[in-house]
Specification:
378 residues; alpha/beta; Rossmann fold; 2 domains; five-stranded parallel sheet; 16 helices; 11 strands; 45% helix; 12% strand; globular
Length: 378
């Protein structure tokens, strides 16, 4: 069997481009200067197909200074977890990032891929409607009917292209995909080969090929991964931030970045206001106050770090377009109301109880936020 047909041999890698008007440029475009500085100063041996050495990838993710260029941290958390994730991708085993919603699984996956191969856009999104063709290949049916099976009629999947190019492919929400889609990954990850029986050929992965999957722990039981598929992954669990100062730091950084990127008409809220929101999220997640002295009911929603960031950026938009131009407690209260009260009718009681038993009793610094939140419950 031929490893690749003539079509595959003549393919060139498509590099991401950006005109400057993209709503959300990929990481390799947004942080191109940092990646270029790391590549220029990277003197350490690199695995086959990698743009940067594992140590340089770590610096890109966790931050540092290289050749006078400041590398901004992309992830705040355990250094060891990041090292394990990077080291896994340098082996023949794929990487699976799991955790609660909003723990930066997709964010980390994108930045790892951008640093390692310079193209984070080869992506399969797992859903209940994801098909096996999206993992393997499909056909241009007009050409298929006109000419029959041919390399020209073949439509490669992102996995197929990553194997040809020797790069990383991302698979988001693996456990939301049907069992047959997950099973299609087993041979690819174990044998590093993809068969195309209609053309009598096999595509063998080039050095540098690997896969980063993500899975949501809230989705356990939707389409559980088989033991056979789990064995093909090294699994890294990303924790929910538990330290108040660390989560505040994450939120402040991302809110400032998003505000600049989307040109929001109000500046980021003050650190004290951000700390109050993060504290509310942490206490409702834990089911108790940070000092451990009082129990609180937990709402039905996740209240992730990502949702906290979204809440505050929404407040910046609200303040800029309909408020004073500066984020105040009324703008924050609107976001809190939407974040805490989801579809579950019990959330109204949970939120009311928290406001009356916890927020109200925290003194004058919390009083404006308490009053603003109470207004929305009337």
């Amino acid at each position: 069997m031929a490893k690749n047909d003539s079509k595959a041999d003549t393919k060139t890698e498509v590099k991401p481009t950006d005109s400057g008007e993209s709503l959300r440029p990929p990481a390799e475009i947004l942080f191109a200067a940092e990646l270029a500085a790391l590549e220029k100063n990277d003197k350490v041996a690199r695995p086959a197909g990698w743009r940067l050495s594992p140590k340089a990838v770590e610096t890109y993710i966790l931050g540092g200074t290289v050749g006078g260029t400041v590398i901004t941290p992309k992830y705040f958390g355990s250094e060891r977890l990041i090292q394990i994730a990077i080291a896994s991708l340098a082996t023949d085993r794929a990487l699976l990032l799991i955790g609660e919603p909003g723990t930066a699984k997709s964010w980390l996956s994108e930045h790892l891929t951008a640093a390692i191969c310079g193209n984070s856009l080869m992506l399969v999104q797992g859903t209940a409607g994801t098909t096996e063709e999206q993992v393997r290949y499909s056909w241009n049916y007009a050409l298929l009917l006109a000419e029959g099976p041919s390399p020209k009629a073949l439509v490669p999947s992102p996995v197929f292209r990553a194997m040809e190019q020797g790069s990383i492919v991302r698979f988001e929400e693996v456990t939301r995909s049907p069992a047959e889609v997950q099973d299609a990954l087993i041979t690819i990850l174990s044998e590093k080969v993809l068969a195309v029986p209609e053309l009598g050929m096999h595509v063998h992965a080039k050095r540098g090929f690997n896969l980063i999957g993500t899975a949501n722990t809230r989705d356990r039981g939707v389409n559980d991964m088989s033991a056979a598929l789990k064995r093909r992954f090294n699994i890294v669990t990303l924790p929910v931030p538990t330290d108040l100062d660390e989560e505040v730091k994450i939120v402040l950084k991302r809110v400032a970045e998003i505000g600049t990127q989307f040109r929001l008409p109000a500046p980021p809220p003050a650190e004290a206001a951000v700390a109050r929101v993060v504290q509310i999220f942490q206490e409702l997640r834990r089911g108790q106050t940070l000092d451990g002295k009082q129990k609180v009911k937990t709402p039905s929603g996740v209240l992730s770090t990502a949702e906290c960031i979204s809440l505050l950026t929404g407040g910046m938009s609200l303040a800029g377009h309909f408020g004073s131009g500066k984020v105040d407690d009324r703008d924050i209260a609107a976001g809190l109301h939407s974040a805490v009260i989801k579809d579950d009718s019990k959330d109204v009681g949970t939120w009311t109880e928290y406001l009356e038993n916890i927020a109200k009793k925290r003194g004058k610094e919390w009083e404006p936020l308490y009053q603003a939140c109470k207004e929305l419950l009337k």
